[in-house]
Design goal:
The chain is of the alpha/beta class. Helix content is 35%, strand content 28%. α3 links the parallel β3 and β4. The chain starts with a strand and ends with a helix.
């Protein structure tokens, strides 16, 4: 769970950081940043890397409620952390997960974050169901998949296949690398290879499938194998057996 700390007072931000760092292991979060005002918080949120915002209300320029209003549906889950109790009703009207009074107590913060975690899990489950229905239609009507239903711990999305760089087989699923992000898909590598356009994707070995345009260079290696270097620096092995099989298919 990725958390952004927003407060115009540095000591308050530092205290929240300490509390977050002392959370029990089952509630451990990743602090993706902090902001001293609403404008800076908007820049963080726009990156799409924030799940929960710990948000002060009274800040200069754009305050907490102003930030929520400005972000609209793009606002992550919000836990207000304030010294003023008179805004509680307005906070819950703004669909806040919780309303914590300063000095924030560790047990109250833990409870609020656990509630946020449950909401995120529920949201991902609901979104996955809807996306599965869309994905089923796409798969039924296409020889090769134009998009792939993927997910991580907090998101599910239909990822265009041209944004896939590398697919790595795991035990019961595959990891999908897209830029700096890693997603998961509940498919075998073999089933994916059958549904991805062979003009765009290359099966390198038993575990790896890459998009051709993600390859930076191919280097001769040993015993007829090659090393494949991707633009992101990942180095993979292209086995002689798989290369020979692909050459036979082309013939």
């Amino acid at each position: 769970m990725r958390v952004l700390v927003v407060d115009d007072e540095a000591p308050a931000r530092a205290r929240l950081q300490r509390l977050l760092g002392a959370l029990p292991a089952e509630l451990a979060v990743t602090v993706v940043g902090e902001a001293a005002n609403g404008e800076a918080a908007m820049e963080h949120i726009a990156t799409g890397t924030v799940d929960v915002v710990l948000l002060d209300i009274r800040m200069p320029h754009l305050d907490g409620f102003g930030l929520v209003a400005a972000m609209g549906e793009e606002m992550p889950l919000t836990i207000f952390c304030t010294a003023h109790d008179e805004h509680a009703l307005a906070a819950f009207d703004a669909r806040a997960v919780d309303y914590l009074l300063k000095p924030v107590q560790p047990e109250r913060l833990s409870a609020a974050l656990e509630r946020a975690r449950q909401l995120l899990a529920s949201s991902v489950t609901t979104r996955k169901r809807g996306l599965r229905a869309v994905a089923a239609v796409v798969e039924t009507n296409a020889r090769y998949l134009p998009r792939l239903l993927v997910h991580d711990d907090t998101r599910a999305m239909l990822l265009p296949v041209e944004r896939i760089d590398h697919v790595r087989a795991q035990r019961n699923y595959c990891d999908i690398r897209s830029g700096t992000h890693t997603f998961r898909v509940r498919r075998t590598l073999r089933s994916l290879a059958d549904r991805l356009d062979p003009a765009q994707f290359l099966r390198l070995n038993k575990s790896d499938l890459v998009r051709v345009d993600a390859i930076r260079e191919i280097q001769p290696w040993s015993h007829g194998d090659y090393r494949v270097v991707l633009h992101n620096g990942t180095t993979l092995s292209w086995s002689r057996r798989f290369r020979a099989a692909q050459e036979l298919e082309q013939d």
